[in-house]
Amino acid sequence: MKKTAAVIGTGLIGGSIGKALLAGRSYSKVIGIGRNRAKLRLALEEKAVSSWSTDYSALKEADLVIICTPVGHIENIFKLIGTHLKPGCIVTDAGSTKERIVKSSGMLPRGVFFVGSHPIAGSHKRGVQNADGKMFKGTLCIVTTEKKTDHKALHSVITLWKRLGCRVLLMSPAEHDRTLALTSHVPHFTASALCLAVLNGDNQRERVLGKGFLDTTRVAAGNPELWCEIASANRKNIRDGIEAVISALRKIKKTAGSRKLFPLLEKACKMRGKLK
Q1: Residues 71, 59: Cα–Cα separation, whole Å
Q2: CATH T-level topology, domain 3-171
Q3: Which 3 state secondary structure label does DSSP give 33?
Q4: Inter-CA distances, 203 with 1, 187, 217, 221, Å
Q5: pLDDT one digit per residue (tens) for the chain, 276 residues
Q6: Order of strands across the sheet with 51-53?
Q7: CATH 1.10.3660.10 residue window(s) in the chain
Q8: Residues pairing with 52 in the sheet
Q9: Which of 81, 159, 165, 209 is disulfide-compatible with 137, CB 3.0–4.6 A?
Q10: Which overall architecture, per CATH, does domain 175-273 show?
Q11: Residues 111, 88: contact at Cβ < 8 Å?
């Protein structure tokens, strides 16, 4: 029997998930939930949802709820949706931090099961108009698990992401946040810092920018509000990661113009060369 899914937050990621679910065979309905009626209508026009509502009571028929809002909103959403979820409902999310979210999911009622997710996919573009049902094919999705995670719900969430085309990696929430601080969050803030240091309203510099600078700073074009929320949710790990980058830059600064610089750059070159 086909099931009903609900997507809370029908932007780029939520819209892409909705399109992918509707293109599959497991879910006959995808309900879009949000506050902005114009954006929800657009999600319907873009065929990212099959219906929409601004009322959380529409969740009562959902077998699966996927929260695709900025991470700073998710805890409050848990407070608002609990009374509308039926027993056996599975809730997951697409947030890029996990420890605080998983902890706050404890406020959901008994008989409702939460499993944290983080698809490593997306774009610096925003909005459901840029949603792509094939966005997740060939990408990685981290699914978080801990001792109290319901095994049946975990299996369902893993299956969900695999059907959307993802490879799935299991991590604890704490391990996820430590790792993603270094591989995703700190690179974003480093790119932002590079823009602040180099551009700074200097038109002369902007005229001589090459592809290398544009590639290195592409992620800095991401939504500032979203990244402020990520910085708040994963503050300690991000600060530790920034200190590690500063330490590496100090070594480069100290050895610039000497023979000691070459082995540092050679090591970095070999490390990057091993990546696909």
Answers
A1: 20
A2: Rossmann fold (3.40.50)
A3: strand
A4: 60, 25, 17, 18
A5: 679 999 999 999 999 999 999 998 889 999 999 999 999 999 999 999 999 999 999 999 999 999 999 999 999 999 999 999 999 999 999 999 999 999 999 999 999 999 999 999 987 778 999 999 999 999 999 999 999 999 999 999 999 999 999 999 999 999 999 999 999 999 999 999 999 999 987 778 888 899 999 999 999 998 899 999 999 999 999 999 999 999 999 999 999 999 999 999 999 999 999 997
A6: 51-53, 27-33, 3-8, 64-67, 90-93, 113-114
A7: 175-273
A8: 32
A9: 165
A10: Orthogonal Bundle (1.10)
A11: yes
Structure tokens given for 16: 């892409």
Beta strands in the chain (DSSP E): 3-8, 27-33, 51-53, 64-67, 90-93, 113-114, 117-120, 140-144, 167-171
Q: Which two tokens mark 145?
A: 């698990």
Tokens of 24: 């599959």
